[in-house]
Amino acid sequence: MDTNSCAARPVSYFPVSPVMLFPEVLGDFSVYLWQGGDFVLYTKSGQKFTIKHRRILHTNGVKEVYIQGSERQQYEKYIEQNLGTILLDQELAIDVRSKVFYEATTVVMQDVFDRKLPSSLRARHFDRITEIVKSSIKFLAEDHSLSAIASFISHDYKTYTHCMQVFIYSVAVFQNCDMSDGEIFECGLGAMLHDVGKAKIPRRILNKRGSLTQSEREIIKEHPVHGVSMCAHLPMTQNTINCILFHHEKLDGTGYPAGLKGDSIPMPVRIISMADIYDALTTARPYAEAMPPYEALTLIRHDMRDGVDMDVFKRFVSVLSGADML
Predict the structure, then answer these.
(1) Rounded to whole angstroms, how far apart are CA atoms 325 and 144?
(2) CATH for 82-322, among 1.10.3210.10, 3.40.50.261, 3.40.50.150, 3.30.70.1400?
């Protein structure tokens, strides 16, 4: 162990669990221990964290190690690259894996939405989102995964957390339907990207407190078309495109952008629409407080029943109830 003290440096540190460090995998960040009131270097950036390193920590009962705040991005990239391994590691508690999933996905989606996107979604962002979707679908199929994730669900509306949560709810329902693995992936990708077009809507409109004007509402309604346009150069299937383009369609034909009716709206799109409505109602938006789950579901059942698929509604309620989210 390197015992060079770092206490004199005016730097910040954040704790991570040793189980998040993978033997024989290089990390572009240094790992520190807290010993005797001081941060002590354990492994250097670019050094493999070995099985022996992990064994020493376990033997000495070390539950947390530390990364410098200046190297947080490198650590987040490391977690993102190893996310599939983490999520399928049955030796890790499901609540630990749920936390890693939610935080890693937040980093990726925030990176996409919190910067001014060009006229199209960058291929590298798309690849990162695709990998998140691939890595997480099997995890979300595990018993108790949804209930474990529930404690991390954000009730403060942000476009990137909203997209994540619509993805989580939608995939949970997809897996209770007669859908192939390929369809779940394609539609899960559509769920994750369903609101990507909002990146082209002025923030003064998205974040406006109070009622929107008619012209502002019309601008908001453009986001599904913007989303498909932004992804036109990417290798997407029709299932994915449908989810982005049609998630605001309603069974009675009053939705947008195409005014589709009834069976013209694909079943996975109806599921995403339900998840979209529910998550919007149960998160605090600039113009409305978050509703409790039961109140939101009651509103959907009584006031929106002409526009939504009530069979999907029943499946959705069953999934939430099974995860103790009601």
Answers:
(1) 11
(2) 1.10.3210.10
173, 315 in Cβ contact below 8 A?
A: yes
Rounded Cα distance between 65 and 58, Å, is 12
Whether the Cβ atoms of residue 55 and residue 21 lie closer than 8 Å to each other:
no
Q: Name every residue whose Cβ is closer than 8 Å to that of residue 152 and which is 6 or more positions away in sequence.
A: 98, 99, 102, 103
Question: What string of DSSP letters covers 251-310?
Answer: TTS--SSS---GGGS-HHHHHHHHHHHHHHHTSBBTTBPPPPHHHHHHHHHHHSTTTS-H
Q: How far is 136 from 292, CA to CA, in rounded Å?
A: 27
Provide the token pair at 248: 């605001």
Q: Where are the domains of the chain?
A: 1-71, 82-322
For 73-113, the pLDDT digits (tens) are 898 888 888 888 889 888 788 988 998 899 889 888 888 87
CB-CB contact of 20 with 89 (8 Å): no
Quick one: tokens of 12? Answer: 């910040």
Q: Report how far apart, in Å, the C-alpha atoms of 265 and of each of 182, 269, 300, 312 are.
A: 19, 7, 18, 13
Predicted confidence (pLDDT) per residue in 283-318, tens digit: 998 888 999 999 999 999 999 999 999 999 999 999
CA 112, CA 123: separation in Å to the nearest integer?
11
Pairing mode, strands 48-49 and 25-26: antiparallel
Helix, strand and coil content of the chain, in percent to the nearest 5, comes to 55, 10, 35
